[in-house]
Design goal:
Layout lengths: L1 H17 L8 E5 L9 H10 L8 E5 L1 H6 L1 H13 L3 E5 L6 E3 L9
Parallel strand pairs: 1-2, 2-3
Antiparallel strand pairs: 3-4
Length: 110
Amino acid sequence: DRWVVNCLARRVGQARAAEVDWEVPRYSINLSTATLFDAQFRALVDRHVRGAPLPEETLCFELGWDAAVEHPVELLRVAGSLRALGCRFAIGSPAGNAKQKCPAGKPAGH
């Protein structure tokens, strides 16, 4: 997940440098369960958001339903910290084909 965020930040930075008026699209990044336990992931995202290659409103992080149900405490911690940066957060549905937004401070599925 760190690799994806780093590559995305680099590519967006290059595109913005090449075309000043380029509007950054919204990106969805699927998170692995391991990222829920990565204490440095938020700092990485924060560095790229505050460093401006990735405007916060362009990032939506997604976590699979099973990981969210199995690790609700970690989910709330990670989702809350990413939302505090202005990023969006979504959880895959049990069927795996639709996304459900997870409001900060609410358990998964609520």
